């Protein structure tokens, strides 16, 4: 096996490598003055099962486009140089939000990205808490593996809750299934009855509307669940609505903390008791540094990624790890 982590994803790659009890394999990346680049493995990949980790959220001067292009080219380079199999390990998969047409002549970018991976000869794509699980599976013709964070978040929810009743809440209709799965996982683990709720949200030309609120959150510890936090507007909108309806405490949990422009409003709002994300992208760690007073916790996913790679490499059963019942 060979395991590489591209520039910008080295810390997460190193954590996954430690979980595997191996070292990251060396590679070279060079950027040219005109914006082009080249990357190559510095060890032989011929006949090897190759894993390449790179998270595709833009940060640190590299856009999502830059990161996607570098990952695609590196995977193709490994295939060009005799790799028996290539797996893209992409904790945050860019362009997963645009998975269907909602306006005339819209792109379906999720499918286009899938076609790019397949054109590079990629055998398998592994990702974490993608925006739309069904769309992700349907977009790819190569093997797709979707890792689940429910088992990471469930113990933390138990610690934060105390004796309060718990409500799992989706900030929009599109995330209802994700929230329901977390609710079921918590009930199975704790034996407690867990409440559920969601809020209506429609976005058109960047204007958000929708007032429907379903669920009883009064006196509860409310956990607002989403796949990502970008500006934080969706989370904050839901948190304020829950507070208005009597929520005792409100927490935001998401796999990916992108924390783009405007996220400071989320960090500073008294409506939010705590925000919990994973270290799937660098921007989460940067936010922790940039907003030292923010009530932000970051859960590590290196062990989860490493265990997934181990099972895939040894052809073990991965169903429990990805959150699918046997």
Automatic annotation (TrEMBL):
Q: Where is the Ribose-phosphate pyrophosphokinase N-terminal domain?
A: 1-121
What does the entry give for GO biological process?
A: 5-phosphoribose 1-diphosphate biosynthetic process; purine nucleotide biosynthetic process
Which CDD domains does the entry mention?
PRTases_typeI
GO cellular component: a single term: ribose phosphate diphosphokinase complex
Keywords attached to this entry: ATP-binding, Kinase, Nucleotide biosynthesis, Nucleotide-binding, Transferase
**Pfam name, any one:** Pribosyltran_N
Q: Which reaction does it catalyse?
A: D-ribose 5-phosphate + ATP = 5-phospho-alpha-D-ribose 1-diphosphate + AMP + H(+)
A GO molecular function annotation here is: kinase activity
Which EC numbers characterise this protein's activity in its record?
Answer: 2.7.6.1
Show the Gene3D superfamilies listed in the entry: 3.40.50.2020
NCBIfam families xrefs: ribP_PPkin
What name goes with this protein?
A: ribose-phosphate diphosphokinase
Q: Which organism is it from?
A: Mesorhizobium tianshanense
* Highest classification ranks of the organism: Bacteria, Pseudomonadati, Pseudomonadota, Alphaproteobacteria, Hyphomicrobiales
